[in-house]
Design a protein that fits this description.
about 400 residues, 6-stranded mixed sheet, flat, about 25% helix, Elongation Factor Tu (Ef-tu), domain 3, alpha+beta
Length: about 400
């Protein structure tokens, strides 16, 4: 028994041994192709270069305008002699379009902000009643013409019988009178048909002039009636935007500075970087006694889609062109938006060979949207206008292409 114990122990240990000869052979990991390693390295290098370039900072895009130089005796820009706030209006004011006949609104052909040409349809009314009335009158006209043909034959027969003394004069008079009645009825029906055709045409509202639709005042399915209180019968409001004007109230004390034909410029409050040339086209004939002002309109010479009716604007009335003083120094003008100031004084950012230079200047009188520069500029410099945050001396910049 003592000899069997070690044998059993050996058997148990033998059963726990791992046969290494039967284990599966492990596969080596797949090798990455050399060309993919090269591509990955190139991409990493490009990204690193991009990060370095961005950290160093690429050229900043800036808007520039140029300083101008006017020699002694040359024409200088007009100076603003009066400014005021007003609104954009149209020459024809607003065009309200209402119905000429009552009817239910069946369809709108246009929507707000649509541009329309003269004669284009705007609104369709339900025309079934008017079309039926027209057809009924046409049928009555056909009956009247048939009666006229019959009565014409009868009158001709009565004339022949009267010549042969087989008919009395009274019978002939009755036949001829019936002919005149038939002709009058036909004329009346033709006039009624013409009116019915007009009413049928009125079921389609058309644009009286070129313009843009400002508002639709009713909805499909509502009843539209002519007239009404305070324009309640209007369906469409439109305006002709080809002739835009700016309207402003001028105080009586300043009327001596404004005249018909005077040059001006208009700057919208919404787009202060835009300026539109204009001229005075209308001065109202009566002063507002309660406000002590006179209404003046200036015609905007080259309007664009940025200008909208009732938009708030700033108007500047200009004096006539004045020559630079003869015998004096040249006049250097810079855009007003290029002149800046801080605690060190007034300065301008000048672009020279793709880099910024901070130039101290001494500004003088304003001339419209420009400023006379008495010191610091000689004319022809490229000056940064508009947003200038983040600019620094020597910074690399690129001029924006308009």
């Amino acid at each position: 028994m003592a000899a069997e114990a070690p044998r059993n122990l050996r058997d148990d240990l033998q059963a726990l041994r791992i046969d290494r000869g039967t284990t599966a052979t492990r596969k080596p990991p797949p090798r990455v192709p050399t060309r993919w390693i090269a591509i990955g390295t190139a991409v990493v290098l490009v990204l690193v270069a991009l990060v370095v370039w961005l950290s160093l900072g690429g050229p900043k895009i800036v808007q520039v305008a140029y300083a101008s130089r006017i020699e002694p005796g040359g024409a200088a820009p007009s100076v603003a002699v009066l400014s005021g706030s007003g609104y954009v209006v149209t020459a024809d004011k607003y065009i309200s379009i209402g119905v000429r006949i009552p009817g239910r609104i069946e369809k709108f052909f246009v929507d707000e902000s649509d541009h329309v040409k003269q004669g284009e349809p705007l609104v369709q009314l339900d025309d079934r009643d008017y079309r039926a009335a027209l057809e009924s009158q046409k049928a009555r006209l056909a009956v009247a013409r048939a009666n006229l043909d019959l009565h014409q034959i009868q009158a001709d027969r009565q004339r022949k019988l009267r010549v042969q003394n087989y008919a009395s004069q009274a019978e002939l008079d009755t036949a001829e009178t019936q002919l005149r009645v038939d002709k009058a009825q036909i004329a009346q029906l033709e006039a009624e048909i013409a009116q019915s055709q007009v009413n049928l045409d009125y079921t389609v509202l058309r644009a009286p002039a070129d313009g843009v639709v400002l508002a639709k005042l009713k909805e499909v399915g509502e009843m539209a009636t002519p007239g009404g209180f305070a324009g309640s019968g209007d369906l469409i409001r439109m305006a002709n935007l080809s002739d835009l004007r700016a309207e402003v109230d001028i105080a009586e004390a300043d009327l001596n500075r404004v005249r018909l034909g005077q040059k001006a410029f208009v700057t919208p409050d919404a787009y202060p970087d835009k300026r539109y040339e204009a001229k005075v086209v209308k001065m109202y004939p009566q002063v507002n006694r309660s406000k002590g002002t006179l209404k003046v309109e200036v015609g905007i010479l080259n309007p664009d889609p940025y200008l909208l009716p009732d938009m708030s604007v700033r108007l500047s009335f200009l004096a006539g062109d004045t020559p630079a003083e003869k015998g004096g120094p040249p006049l250097v003008l810079a855009p007003r938006g290029a002149i800046r100031s801080d605690s060190s004084g007034s300065y301008a950012w000048v672009v020279t060979e793709g880099k910024l230079r901070r130039q101290l200047v001494r500004p003088g009188a304003e001339r419209g949207d420009q400023v006379a520069v008495e010191e610091g500029l000689s004319g022809g410099e490229a000056l940064v206008v508009g947003e200038a945050s983040g600019l620094s001396e020597g910074q690399r910049v690129a001029i924006a292409r308009n």
